[in-house]
Backbone:
């Protein structure tokens, strides 16, 4: 059997425990992955992403639940009976074989004839650009070359799915960045369905079609990079990507599509729009979040003793404003970063292109402008846990 | 990775296009078939079954037969109508002697071995490798050859006393000679153990202590020794039990003085089976206790760390004291261990064709070998036996040791594995004569009656002895290998057996070869248990014992020399293999 069509991947209530149930690596996971998409499993260390990858690829068996790949239940087949490609974090190149023998291994052990083996191996090596290292042994190769061997070996058997376990983890940061695009190009040109594990959110956003954010064995959110970035479901996910300012307070005048948000510690009131189906009620605590690049900084001169409400804001009619003082202004080349103490005591950060804020300095009193569409969250039971990155 | 636009469609085509469907050859198909779970279970079961039969069976049957025949044993040992409880008294005496000798030998070894271990780990000098190999040499010499060598050196007129002009050995066969012998062959064990401990020690701790002003000896007592205590205790217990159980060399140098293992042999030969069984059981129980103690308690025992006595310790740390310590360490090694152990070599050379005293052919090697009783022929027959037995035992050990090693490393059986692991070491610690007798009872005419004393019974015994020597190195290598390599092979479609053949086995090769060499050498040198089960067959070590008993010293010397040379060659081979597998990094 050469290849199977294994387009869609489905997991139904899959759980995986170790050590007699003491360690829960995967907790009742249900998801489905479309044919041809490049999906990332993203999360902090220990969240279960590598376990999930091994479950889907068949290297581990679930404690409960079922996994279907192309409609076929995995429980009925061993990995060696299926056609999958797996790229390992530490490459796992067989040390006693040449590059060619490594790449040819998947065909050799399945009994392909010599001609086919040669042809398929050489194609794979050409695709990754290792035509000239064919007879070398792994110990003669550098890290990027070893990574390519691992990749070539995994795609040589023409399987339709590729699993990658932090494949770029061992590369230098600069090479990582250029490789990631090559990787995506290769996967797309071969029309593969690919699932990659990473803890690097930038990588996931840059080349992933879909991202699955995991934490402590559960899936927190599953969507495109934009979905996750602009519409995070939880504070944890909001905090995981980019940088967010979180403001605590309570809500009043709750309507289906808007409410008034009172910043805590006696801060001003904001006009805030809400999503359909929100579950906020009057006078409950809540948290709103603004990305650091979404915070407006408005300069006021020293002799304007103006309160937030009275300021004339013709050109920004829908902006909530708070007075604040610039505690730090940090120049980082194309970007300028600001740390600002708001008048109610909250401290926030703002990040903007250096070009547009030439005249705001440390010690300045400014107005900070917040738009009316922040991320809105119910106040969590354990705020510290939500805000941690683990 | 460069992909031209025109290649894009080709690649997309390729990934959907079918190459000729694979037709796996016979080997791959067989491997796939036999990779199924039911075969794995069968292999596991037969491996464990074999092991149980091999080691546990005889031990259990020994205890069992003691229990079942308790009445008769009680009578024979404690309440014989004629001799009363004399058997018990004798047993008590020989046990006491064995303990005493073991304690003294181990103590001496610790004292003279410690400086040597220090020299070998903390200093660099030309010729260090040579010294290192020399220290290991007594381990490479089969015990009876070693015993003979030591007997020659200390106990006969042709050794050191000859040089001093005496016409009798310095020590006649007896306890002193036995102790010296035990010191010699346990020395490498202790030094090796101490070396490993010192090497593992972070020198940084010692450096830190020195920067804080502690003189060398204080550093040793307060920093190095406590950290190393676990290993030192383990090594001491190991050496102690080794000495306790030593039979082969002891028989040669003991004369009429008997140690416990020797008494087992004597009892068996006088057909006093109840007593032999009883004493064997006691000896084995003691060694099992030692094994348990080793595993459980070594962490908890404290080391006496008394107050620092600055002046004395400073005095002990000065240069001249250190130099003296080093010199004495090396000297003692040479005089007490190395030279006596190797004494056979000059002896055989000198006495080869001409008697150096009378200048005739009396008592020369040649005369002895080619005398009318045809010892020469016997020697070669025995050598053939030894080699055949060693080869067959080693092969059997590999066949069952490989799967056993895999089980111990890879199967997740929890507590059972720990037990199995401990049991593998039993043949290393139990006295060979006792083990040999247990196996004789189990397999021989009084037990299952499968084997008579002779060739195959010897092989069974040797398999039991050599088993740990094969399993341990293989385990060590498997543990060092990255398990993900096998996952990688599986994702590429290789069945378990194919993965084993193409990936795992090549990596294990150095471990397997090292194990085979150690097992072969062990078998070639095995004496104690072999004496019990050999019947009329002779292996070279047993032949040596025979010839010493009949005072055919020259012939015994020659046979010993052959064994020694053989073992050296094998030891060199072993070092070469180890270097190859670790040097290629």
Residues:
């Amino acid at each position: 059997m050469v290849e199977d069509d294994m387009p869609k991947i489905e997991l139904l209530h899959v759980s995986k425990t170790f050590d007699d149930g003491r360690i829960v690596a995967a907790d009742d996971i249900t998801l489905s992955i479309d044919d041809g998409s490049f999906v990332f499993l993203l999360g902090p260390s220990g969240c279960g992403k590598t376990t999930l990858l091994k479950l889907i690829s068949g290297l581990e068996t679930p404690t409960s639940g079922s996994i279907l790949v192309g409609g076929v239940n995995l429980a009925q087949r061993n990995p060696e009976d299926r056609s999958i490609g797996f790229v390992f974090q530490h490459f796992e190149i067989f040390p006693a074989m040449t590059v060619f023998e490594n790449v040819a291994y998947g065909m050799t052990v399945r009994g392909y004839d010599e001609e086919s083996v040669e042809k398929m191996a050489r194609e794979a090596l050409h695709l990754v650009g290792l035509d000239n290292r064919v007879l070398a042994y792994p110990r003669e190769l550098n890290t990027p070359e070893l990574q390519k061997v691992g990749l070539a070996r995994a795609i040589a058997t023409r399987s339709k799915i590729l699993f990658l376990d932090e494949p770029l983890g061992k590369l230098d940061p600069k090479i990582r960045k250029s490789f990631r695009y090559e990787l995506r190009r290769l996967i797309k040109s071969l029309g593969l369905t690919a699932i990659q594990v990473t803890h690097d959110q930038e990588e996931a956003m840059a080349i992933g079609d879909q991202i699955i954010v995991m934490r402590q064995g559960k899936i927190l959110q599953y969507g495109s990079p934009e979905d996750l970035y602009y519409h995070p479901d939880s504070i944890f996910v909001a905090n995981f990507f980019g940088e967010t300012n979180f403001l605590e307070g309570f809500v009043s005048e709750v309507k289906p599509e808007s409410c008034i948000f009172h910043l805590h510690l006696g801060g001003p009131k904001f006009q805030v729009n809400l999503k359909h189906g929100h579950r906020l009620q009057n006078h409950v605590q809540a948290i709103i979040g603004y990305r650091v690049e979404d915070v407006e900084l408005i300069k006021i001169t020293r002799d304007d003793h103006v309160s937030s409400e009275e300021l004339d804001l013709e050109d920004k009619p829908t902006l909530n404003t708070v007075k604040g003082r610039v505690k730090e202004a940090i120049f980082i080349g194309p970007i300028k970063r600001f740390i600002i103490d708001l008048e109610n005591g909250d401290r926030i950060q703002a990040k903007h292109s250096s070009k547009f804020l030439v005249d705001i300095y440390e010690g300045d009193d400014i107005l900070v402008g917040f738009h009316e569409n922040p991320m809105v969250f119910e106040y969590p039971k354990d705020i510290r846990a939500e805000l941690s990155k683990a | 990775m460069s992909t031209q636009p025109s290649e894009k469609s080709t690649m997309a085509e390729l990934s959907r296009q079918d190459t000729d469907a694979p037709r796996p050859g016979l080997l791959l198909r067989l491997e796939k078939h036999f990779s199924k779970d039911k075969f794995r279970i069968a292999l596991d079961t037969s491996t464990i079954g074999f092991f149980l039969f091999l080691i546990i069976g005889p031990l259990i049957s020994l205890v069992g037969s003691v229990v079942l025949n308790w009445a008769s044993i009680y009578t024979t040992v404690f309440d014989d109508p004629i001799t009363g409880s004399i058997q018990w008294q004798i047993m008590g005496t020989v046990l006491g002697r064995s303990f005493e000798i073991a304690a003294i030998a181990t103590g001496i070894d610790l004292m003279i071995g410690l400086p040597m271990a220090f020299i070998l780990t903390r200093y660099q000098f030309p010729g260090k490798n040579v010294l290192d190999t020399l220290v290991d040499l007594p381990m490479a010499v089969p015990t009876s050859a070693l015993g003979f060598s030591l007997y020659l050196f200390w106990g006969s007129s042709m050794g050191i006393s000859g040089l001093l002009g005496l016409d009798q050995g310095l020590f006649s066969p007896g306890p002193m000679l036995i102790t010296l012998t035990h010191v010699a062959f346990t020395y490498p064990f202790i030094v090796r153990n101490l070396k490993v401990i010192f090497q593992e020690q972070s020198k940084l701790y010692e450096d830190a202590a020195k920067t804080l002003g502690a003189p060398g000896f204080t550093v040793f007592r307060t920093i190095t020794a406590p950290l190393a205590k676990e290993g030192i205790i383990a090594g001491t217990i190991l050496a102690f039990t080794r000495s306790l159980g030593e039979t082969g060399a002891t028989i040669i140098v003991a004369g009429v003085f008997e140690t416990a293992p020797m008494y087992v042999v004597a009892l068996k030969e006088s057909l006093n089976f109840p007593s032999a069984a009883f004493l064997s059981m006691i000896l084995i129980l003691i060694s099992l206790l030692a094994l348990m103690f080793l595993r459980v308690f070594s962490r908890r025992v404290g080391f006496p760390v008394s107050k620092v006595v600055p002046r004395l310790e400073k005095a002990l740390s000065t240069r001249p004291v250190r130099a003296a310590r080093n010199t004495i360490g090396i000297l003692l090694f040479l005089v007490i261990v190395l030279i006596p152990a190797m004494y056979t070599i000059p002896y055989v050379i000198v006495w080869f064709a001409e008697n150096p005293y009378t200048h005739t052919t009396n008592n020369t090697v040649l005369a002895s070998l080619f005398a009318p009783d045809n010892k020469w022929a016997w020697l070669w027959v025995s050598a053939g036996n030894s080699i055949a037995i060693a080869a067959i035992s080693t092969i059997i050990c590999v066949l069952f040791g490989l799967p056993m090693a895999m089980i111990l490393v890879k199967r997740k059986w929890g507590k059972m594995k720990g037990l199995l692991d401990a049991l593998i070491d039993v043949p290393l610690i139990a006295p060979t004569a006792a083990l040999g007798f247990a196996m004789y009872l189990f397999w021989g005419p009084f037990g299952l009656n499968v084997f008579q004393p002779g060739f195959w019974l010897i092989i069974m015994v040797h398999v039991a002895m050599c088993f740990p020597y094969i399993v341990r190195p293989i385990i060590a290598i498997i543990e060092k290998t990255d398990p993900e390599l096998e996952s990688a092979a599986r994702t590429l479609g290789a069945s378990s057996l194919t993965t084993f053949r193409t990936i795992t086995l090549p990596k294990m090769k150095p471990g397997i070869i090292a194990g085979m060499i150690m097992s072969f050498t062990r078998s070639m040198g095995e004496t104690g248990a072999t004496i019990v089960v050999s019947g009329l067959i002779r292996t070279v070590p047993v032949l040596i014992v025979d010839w010493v008993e009949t005072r055919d010293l020259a012939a015994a010397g020659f046979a010993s020399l052959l064994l020694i040379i053989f073992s050296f060659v094998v030891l060199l081979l072993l070092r070469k293999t180890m270097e190859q597998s670790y040097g290629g990094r």
About this structure: Chain B touches chain A through 40 residues (CB under 8 Å). The CA atoms of residues 369 and 376 of chain B lie 5 Å apart.
